[in-house]
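Section 3.1: Structural characterization of target chains.
Under the original work plan, the team committed to producing a structural model for every single-chain target entering the pipeline before any wet-lab resources were allocated. The record below documents one such target. The sequence was received from the expression subgroup and is listed exactly as submitted; it comprises 75 residues.
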Amino acid sequence: MAKLRKEFFVFVSLFIFLSLGMHMKQWISHPIEHIQHLSSSQFGLFHPLYFTFLVYAFLYVIRFILGLFMRLFKR
């Protein structure tokens, strides 16, 4: 359960980081309007989750490979 909680925290942190990184101006000036216009986005309503999942999956693979290498060198 602790692993799941950690991965959820990583995903949510990445989601916040990516959304603020891409749309900082909109989040500061008009956040409610920005959320309301999400459904009319050219990428679709759930595009923030899709993009976050793609980045998360990429980072997870890198973390997994690094973890394997760390285990090899610890022995």
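The two ends are 27 Å apart (CA to CA).
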